[in-house]
Amino acid sequence: MNNTPKMVDENSSAAATTTVSHHHDASLYDDDGRPKRKGTVWTTSSHIITAVIGSGVLSLAWSIAQLGWIAGPIVMIFFSLVTLYTSYFLADSYRVGDPVTGKRSYTYMEAIGNILGGKNFIFCGIMQYMNLYGTAIGYTIGAAMSMMAITKTDCIHSSHGKNSCHVSGNRYIIWFGAIQLLFSQIPNFHKMGLLSILAAVMSFTYSLIGLALGIAQISENGTFKGTIAGAEAETQAKKVWAIFQALGNIAFAYSYSNILIEIQDTIKSPFEVRTMKTATNVSIATTTAFYVLCGCIGYGAFGNSAPGNLLTAFDKPFWLIDIANLALVIHLVGAYQVYSQPLFAFVEEQATKRWQVTGKEHKIQIPILPSYNLNTFRLVWRSLFVVVTTFIAMLVPFFNDILGVIGALGFWPLTVYFPVEMYIKQKKMPKWSGSWIFLQSLSMFCLLVTVAAMIGSVVGIIVDLDAYKPFSASL
Question: Where does 68-155 show beta strands of DSSP type E?
Fold first, then answer.
C-alpha cells in the first residue's frame, strides 16, 4: 500500500490533540481515536445537495437547447444514473476490507492510495484538487453574475426600462471573494453542518423560482418551444462544439464524487456505508427531478434561444428574480466551502508533515457565538487561496465555458474511472468476466464523453477570448 497522508479534523496543528488513540471512552471517540462523528442521512444529504445543486442547474436549459428535446433529457438521466452507480462504489471504498471495522480513508485521495496505490494516487491528487480549485473559480463567477443581475433588474425597474443599465462585474467578484475570506476560516467539514443546510435550502429556493418562472413563461407563450434537434448553428462544426460543451455542463451539474469520501468521513459510526448510500439515493433522486424539470421547463419557455444562465432570461417580476439570485449567491457561499475544504485540509496536512508548519492558535471570543481558535497559517494560506481564485475569476469570467471545462476534467477520472477500478480491486473481479467487461466498457464510454466535453469547452473559451478584454466582465 501507498503511504498516504491522513486529513486532519480541525487543522494540521490540532491533529495531535484531537487524535487520541490511547483514549478508550467510546462515548467520546470513534474507533480511530478521533472525536465522535455525528453525521446523519440528513446532514449528509445536505452536503451532497449543496455540492450538486449549484450554479450548474442554471445552464441546463441552454444545454438541452444544444441537444434537443430527445437527447437532452436522456443525457441528463444517463449522467444521474452513472453518478448514482459509481457513488455506491465510492461509498464501499471508505473502509479498506471490512465495511465496519476496516481501515478508514479520510479523503478521496487516500482511498485511492489505500486500494490502488502507485501512480493512481498521484494522478487522483492532481485531478481532484485541480477540479476543486476550478469549481471555486466557477462558483465565484456564478455568484458575481447573480449579484450583477440583481443590480441590473433593480436599475431597469427604477428607470422604468429607459436605462439599459450596463453593469460591470469586477466589484461583485471582489465582494464575493471578501465574503469567502471570512467563511474560509471554518476549520473543516465537521463544522459546516449549518452552512450546508442553509445552502441546500437556498438551492431549492432558486431552483423552484426558476421552475415557476419558466412555467409562467410557457403559459404566456401558449406553447412549448424547442425542437427535436436543438439549436442550429452557423456551421456544422460549431453545432458539434456546442453539443460537446453541453455535455460538459451537464457533467458538472452532477459532480460531487471528488468530495464524497470527505463527506462520508463525517457520518456516525458504524453506519457510514449504509448512511452514505441512502443519502446518495435521496440526493440524486431529488436533484435529477429538479434538473429535468428546470432544464426542460427552461427550454420549453425559451426554446433554442435559452440563455447560459436561466435567471438572466427573466425581467419580471423583478423582486422574485432578485430573491432567486440572492438565494443563489447564498448557496454558492456554502458550495464554495464544500468544495474548498478538502483542498484546505490537504495543503495544511502536507505543510505540517513536510515542513512542520503549524501556525499559532489565538483564541478569539466572539459575542453571542462560541469562542474561535484562529490559526495563523490557516489564516494566511486560505486568504491567499481566496485572493488568487478571485483574481482568476476576474480574468476569465466565462460562465458556461468554465463549467464545461470543470465538468469535463472531473467527470471521467473522479466519477467513473477511480470508483470502478477500486470496486474491481476490492471485489477481486476476474479479468474478462462479464462484470469486468461491462464496467470497463462503461468507463471507456465515459472517457469519450469527457474528451468530447473538454474539446467543446476549450473551443468555447477560445471563441470567447477573441472578443474579450481581461477584467471587463459585464452584464
Answer: 95-96, 103-104
**In the block, residue with C-alpha cell 471512552:** 25
Residue 112 CB contacts under 8 Å (≥ 6 apart), including other chains: 4, 120, 121, 124, 418, 422
Least confident of 1-15, 171-185, 267-281: 1-15
Query: How does the average pLDDT of the chain come out, rounded?
Result: 82
User: Helix, strand, or coil here: 364?
Assistant: strand
CA 61 – CA 306 distance, rounded (Å): 6
Q: Which of 90-99, 184-193, 327-336, 412-421 is the least confident region? A: 184-193
Length of the chain: 475
The 10 Å CB-count burial string (b at 16+, else e) for 298-334 is bbbbbbbebbbbbbbbbeeebeebbebbbbbbbbbbb
In the three-class reduction of DSSP (H, G, I as helix; E, B as strand; rest coil), residue 266 is classed as coil
Residue 231: which of 247, 245, 242 has the closest Cα? 242
Domain ranges of the chain: 38-466
Write the pLDDT tens digit of every residue in 198-214: 888 888 888 888 889 99
Q: State whether residue 437 is helix, strand or coil.
A: helix
Given a contact cutoff of 8 angstroms between Cβ atoms, the answer to whether 119 and 421 are in contact is: no
* Cα–Cα distance for residue pair 241/455, rounded to 1 Å: 7
What is the C-alpha R_g of the chain? 22
Identify the CATH homologous superfamily for domain 38-466. Amino acid/polyamine transporter I (1.20.1740.10)
CA separation for the pair 210, 314 (Å, rounded): 9
126-184 pLDDT per residue, tens: 888 888 888 888 888 888 888 988 888 888 878 776 676 777 778 899 999 999 999 99
Q: Give the Cα separation of 391 and 295 in Å (integer).
A: 31
Contact 279, 264 (CB under 8 A): no
8 A C-beta contact, residue 27 and residue 17: no
266 near 43, Cβ under 8 Å?
yes
d(CA 255, CA 251) in angstroms, rounded, equals: 6
